[in-house]
Structures are given as structure tokens and as C-alpha cells.
Specification:
The structure is a homodimer. The first copy, chain A, is an alpha/beta fold. Chain A contains 10 helices and 9 strands.
């Protein structure tokens, strides 16, 4: 592993690392924020942040303003890139498939299956790397934005007991039923829509064995609200399943990091309460 | 004028406008943050933010996290671009002269004198535009980073009574004595170094008729500290002149927006106290 950036921030350090991912078969970059409490010798809980389409590890660490709250609560923030990268990794035309668009699934179809295993990377390999190299405990929370909000919800629901808390900003709640998800799942998982259910939060809540509360914030003026995000499908699925959900629609807010910055403090407080419980 | 961006943020609106500048002879883009209190009908004080080399209006509004604090204190934030722009505007090789490097002076030399009048723009034309089009009072504060820190200090010292408060992050305190300033001042103001004193904070404090306290934060591990910034020259000049200065060196912090984000809350609180006094 190599440290690419090391910047003092709110009394701690915003670092960026490059490390080898055997799961993905490539090098990956990861943002790691170590709050001031990381110097104290005790292991700290970790919030994993999954970014949206086109993003790298940079978007969240430069624009969300999350470090202030992580420093207040003593939480490590880990923000990985959104897909495998490198010349060996297949890509596609368009911003919504291939590099920058991993969708946090384990692909089963060629040419994607070899490298596009973001599920295994985020859920297993990345936490193992974090917990081996940083003063990180195994108390984990997960959140994300848009495609990454889908990832956070789906991976938390698929892995009961693995995360203490989950939240999402403007998530793609029902990827099986919107264009972004249909394109990506069709490519990565193949034409059989049954296979898509394993990564669709609105399907996963129906069979969830753990009633982990879902916290979702959504901008009311988000340009993708009706076409791609459709949070009311998650609301209906949670009501049908009796799964706890707090969904807040914020009039005026759009899909940008200005929206995330405005509410990330509330999410980190939510995770901090669960992580210290 | 044209509104290019309009994004809900911390209960207010982060807007970006394009407006015609007669002073600069070109169109300019400006970030304007209107806090939630701007909807209340009363005129609010304004903090003008001057960015550094290579920046546009985007850097501060996307990376500093200042909107949270402006919303708390009810302050409008105005962040202009850092130079005149457009095909008619002369430019130079390198990032430290010409476009993106206006240095907040009124140029007197060809080919710069026609467009490079950032002093007049920032001190006169921009506030007049802001106070005509937004619920802004004439209670003004000014701050900035690096080249913009120089601008904030120099323009406040040159214009007693115009600003209620001034602060700077990692400012170029003595442009007459460091490479960035020597190159820019030589081009914009000509070879006579006497003319440079009008825009050099370490010279201006010696003759300042108003004892406006200077608040300066500086990263101790800033890569430009010794070569370009040299805050101790300002400290010495203030001591010699009896000018009030609070200079804080922060070990570990560099020149990036992570440094600004870490301390912008303190600066906005400082300005809020002066603006409401």
C-alpha cells in the first residue's frame, strides 16, 4: 500500500491510499479519515461511504464536509472508489456502466465477472484491510449516495449483523425497476431478473431477518427523483414487510453534494449513536 | 445577470451568477450563498471571499464547508472569480500570472491595464451589484486564501471604514518580497517597486489610519510557507506599527482546502461578531 495524500483536517488526517485488491484484480484508491481520537490508542468505529456514478474516492472527501462530524464523534471514515480501475479492467460507453459505475454487485457475466466484484470488496476485503492497517474496530456502519445509497442499503440488508447502522442519501432504492439499474444489472448479472433481487433493497427488505432501521434523506427537487430513485417504492416495501424506515423528503434540495453536506452531520450522529451502543 | 446554479444548502441557497463587469470589461461568475435568514426581509451582512491562484468561484463554494456557519450566523457569502475572463482578456504562460491570477490589484501596465482591475471590482463594483440585487446590507467583511488572503488584507488596509473585519488563510503577506508577488506586481504594476507598496500588507500596516485587527491562520506544514507566504514578515510589520494581529500557526496543516475547512467556522464567527457589533 502507498499513501498518496496526507492532509491535516479538523485535528485529524484525511489520507488517500492506494492498495492492491485481490478480489478486484487491480489497485484501488481509498480515502481514509482518521479523527483526532485515532491517536489515542483505542480502536475506533468505522463509517464506510459508497459514492455515486462517475465518482472516485475524492468527491466525498473534498465536498461533503463530513470530517468535522467524524472528528466530533471519533469515527473513522472510509470512502473507496466506485469500481475497479486500470487498463486491464473492461469499460463501457456512457457514465452508468463500467468504470465509475460498479453498482456494488458481484458481476456474474462476461466481460465483467473477473474484476467487477465490488460487493466482496466493500463487505469483506476493504474492512479486513482497514482493520489490519488502522486503529479501526469491527464496529461498522455504512452509508452512501445515489448508486452508493443503493449499495449501502443492499449490502447492509444482505449481510445481517455486519453493520450496526445504515443510511443513504438519494439512493437508487429499486434498481430492478429503473433505467440505471436495469442497464447495470442486465450487464453485470445477466437477463434473469430473479438474480437482480439479491441487490434490490425493495426486494431485500421483504426477506430481511434483521430489522436494521433504514435512514434515508432525499431531495425533493432532485432531478433523478421520479426517473431513477423513487424512494416511495422503498417506503411501500418497508411498510409491507414491517421494516423500520425513516424517509425524509427535503423540498428544494437536489442531487448534489450541497444536499449531502447539509445533512451528513445528522447521518454521522445517527451512526455514532448506533456504533457506541 | 444570469443565474447559472441554484442549489439548496443548509436551509439557504448556494447560487452562482454571471454578471457584466464594466470595470473589468468582461462577464464574471460569482458564487452567492444566501442563508435561510435571507428570506426574512431584512438586509444581512456580507462576507466577501477572495480565492487563490488557479481558482474560480467554485473552489470555495464546493470545498470550504462555509455555508453551515453562514447559515448559523445569518451572513451572505460572496465568492467572485479570481481574474477577468474571456477571449478578449490577455493571459500569460504559467498559473501565476494572467487568468486565475489577478492578484486583486488595478494593473497599470500593458497589456493588463484594460481588464485587470480586480481592486476596483472587488471593492466597488461587486458590492454595489450585491447590494442592489440581494438582501445585503453595507456591513461588509472580507477574507481569502493565499493570493486571496493577500487581497483581503491589502484591500481592507487600503480602504479604512469599508470593512468591519478582515481575515486571511495562508496569505501572501509580503508580495513585494516573494516570487509570486514579484512576478505579478512586476507585470501588472511595472518595475518601480514603490508602486508595489500600495498592495503589500506589510507596507500598508505601517501607514494604516484604522487599526482593524488582522486575523490570520497559517498551516505549519504549508508547502509555500517559507518561499511565498512568510507570515512572520507581517508579524514584524504589525509589531513595528502597533497594528493588532492574531496570527496562529497550525502544525501539520498544509495549503489545501482541508485546512480552510478546518478553520473557516472560527473565521465566520469572528466576522459575525464584528458585523453585528
Amino acid at each position: 500500500m502507498e499513501r498518496l495524500e496526507h492532509r491535516a483536517c479538523f485535528g485529524g488526517w484525511q489520507d488517500v491510499y492506494r492498495h492492491r485488491s485481490d478480489v478486484l484484480g487491480c489497485d484501488m484508491t481509498v480515502g481514509v479519515y482518521l479523527p483526532p481520537q485515532a491517536a489515542g490508542g483505542t480502536r475506533l468505529p468505522v463509517l464506510y461511504w459508497l459514492s455515486g456514478l462517475t465518482c472516485t474516492e475524492q468527491n466525498f472527501i473534498t465536498k461533503a464536509g463530513a470530517q468535522r462530524y467524524a472528528a466530533e464523534h471519533g469515527i473513522i471514515l472510509v470512502a473507496p472508489d466506485t469500481s475497479p480501475r486500470g487498463d486491464d479492467v473492461p469499460d463501457a460507453e456512457g457514465y452508468d456502466l463500467g468504470k465509475g459505475a460498479g453498482f456494488y454487485v458481484n458481476a456474474t457475466q462476461d466481460p465483467w465477472a473477473r474484476h467487477y466484484r465490488m460487493d466482496d470488496y466493500v463487505v469483506r476485503e476493504l474492512p479486513a484491510w482497514v482493520e489490519a492497517h488502522f486503529p479501526a474496530s469491527d464496529a461498522r456502519a455504512i452509508s452512501g449516495h445515489s448508486m452508493g445509497g443503493h449499495g449501502a442499503l443492499a449490502l447492509a440488508l444482505r449481510n445481517p449483523g455486519r453493520y450496526r447502522s445504515v443510511s443513504a442519501f438519494a439512493p437508487i432504492v429499486a434498481p430492478s425497476r429503473v433505467p440505471w439499474g436495469e442497464k447495470a444489472f442486465g450487464a453485470y448479472l445477466g437477463p434473469d431478473r430473479e438474480a437482480w433481487k439479491r441487490y434490490d433493497a425493495t426486494e431485500l427488505v421483504a426477506t430481511a431477518t434483521e430489522r436494521l432501521p433504514l435512514l434515508v434523506d432525499q431531495g425533493g427537487d432532485d432531478e433523478f427523483l421520479d426517473g431513477q430513485l423513487r424512494p416511495h417504492l422503498l417506503q411501500a416495501a418497508c411498510e409491507a414487510a414491517g421494516h423500520p424506515l425513516e424517509l425524509r423528503i427535503h423540498p428544494g434540495y437536489d442531487h448534489s453534494y450541497y444536499f449531502i453536506a447539509s445533512f451528513i452531520g445528522r447521518h454521522i450522529a445517527h451512526h455514532a449513536a448506533a456504533l457506541s451502543a
